[in-house]
Design a protein that fits this description.
- By secondary structure, this protein is mainly alpha-helical.
- The chain has one domain.
- The protein is built from 13 helices and 5 strands.
- The protein has helices spanning 2-30, 46-56, 58-65, 74-84, 88-111, 115-122, 126-133, 144-153, 170-199, 212-234, 252-260, 278-303, 311-337; strands at residues 202-203, 235-239, 269-273, 306-307, 341-343.
- It has a 3-stranded mixed β-sheet.
- Helix 5 (88-111) runs antiparallel to helix 12 (278-303), helix 9 packs antiparallel against helix 13 (311-337) and helix 10 runs antiparallel to helix 12 (278-303).
- The radius of gyration is 24 Å and the shape is elongated.
- The two termini are 41 Å apart.
Length: 359
């Protein structure tokens, strides 16, 4: 009980510090503007727009880069100058690119993992779950009943997911290395793409700010973190089998070993439903449901308002976003399918079969 209160107090301090930090930073950000845009663009139109800026928009660009000039409309002057000197067929392509980018948040919601998926994985492998949370700019929405459905299905026979023998040392090591490599690559791709969208393109309704696409990406991570808190309020687990250690309360060595071991090679754990915090759980789930929709709407608003991106580049952007989401989803599907669980009051689930080599 003391440990639980300590964790709650720690989380409370983190939330309070985050709120204070946001309160202090927001006024500062609101009165400043970006000076870093119009230096690089996406490849297809890089030389085209650079030539326009050099030949036709030198004055507007110099005014924008002048740090003593605090005019919030300096960015709009550059946009207006570029569009005035841009051929009509290029403007039509801009409109097409905006449509393609505008669909991206909705597509990502369908392809990405849910916050319950990453929360459940975090019971065993919080580091990998955190990486996968950062791998996609979209989050699949859920309702309160999805948490209860997970608890209801706990203890059923797991899927066949292992590769190699159950006693193998190399198989789980190789699988774990591959998972972290793919997850790290997905995070790097997603983070770099957020930077490119922020600095290499310009948002027409807020040209003075260059952090809006990055904010959209970061909002997905926040949703995953809040989803983890909701799962902690609703689902409690206890490690079973093997050494009998609970991954969440064991020694540092046991937690590190669990982090580095794929779930099909780990011991089972018992899933219990926690009804002590129904009120806070429903509040968080409702906030997540609304926040997920707002995050997708915000992404649509931002991406569809970006200019100076060609149709080819916009298609590549969407493919890269989808690739990160799908790779992260694939790892989660493998990890969650390999979970060995038992439900309180139900018999133990059978040990997973090893599809590659019989034991």
């Amino acid at each position: 009980m003391a440990v639980y209160r300590g964790k709650q107090g720690y989380l409370g301090y983190l939330l309070t510090a985050a709120i204070i930090l946001c309160y202090c930073i927001t006024p500062t950000v609101a009165i400043t503007r970006s000076y870093n845009q119009y230096e690089h663009f996406f490849p297809a139109w890089e030389h085209l727009i650079q030539d326009q800026l050099r030949d036709n928009c030198t004055k507007q660009l110099n005014d924008y880069k002048n740090r003593s000039n605090t005019d919030q409309g300096a960015g709009y002057n550059v946009i207006g100058c570029v569009l005035e000197t841009m051929p009509e067929y290029r403007k039509a392509e801009l409109a097409s690119a905006a449509v393609i980018l505008g669909f991206a948040p909705t597509v990502l919601q369908l392809l990405s993992a849910s916050y319950l998926d990453t929360a459940v994985l975090a019971y065993r492998r919080p580091g990998l779950a955190f990486l996968l949370s950062m791998s996609s700019s979209g989050v699949r929405p859920l309702t309160a009943t999805d948490y209860d459905d997970f608890i209801a299905t706990a203890g059923t026979d797991p899927f066949h997911t292992n590769f190699g023998k159950s006693q193998s040392v190399w198989a789980p090591t190789i699988v774990s290395i591959l998972e972290y490599t793919i997850a790290s690559g997905a995070v790097a791709n997603n983070a770099y793409l957020a930077y490119q969208l922020s600095v290499w393109a310009v948002c027409t309704f807020s040209s003075q700010q260059d952090f809006l696409p990055a904010m959209w990406t970061a909002a997905a991570l926040v949703i995953h973190l809040v989803g983890y808190l909701a799962a902690r309020l609703r689902i409690s687990v206890e490690g079973r089998g093997g050494s009998g250690e609970n991954n969440n309360r064991g020694t540092l060595w046991h937690r590190l070993l669990a982090e580095l071991t794929p779930t099909p090679w780990q011991t089972r754990f018992e899933v219990k439903k926690n009804d002590r915090h129904n009120g806070w759980f429903l509040v968080l789930v409702s906030a997540l449901y609304i926040g997920d929709a707002l995050q997708a709407f915000f992404g649509t608003l931002i991406l569809s308002s970006l200019v100076f991106i060609s149709v080819r580049d916009s298609a590549i952007i969407v493919i890269r976003l989808m690739a990160s989401a799908l790779f992260a989803r694939g790892i989660l599907i493998y990890e969650l399918a390999g979970f060995r669980t038992e439900k309180e009051g139900r018999g133990l689930s059978e040990k997973p079969h090893y599809s590659a080599v019989e034991t």
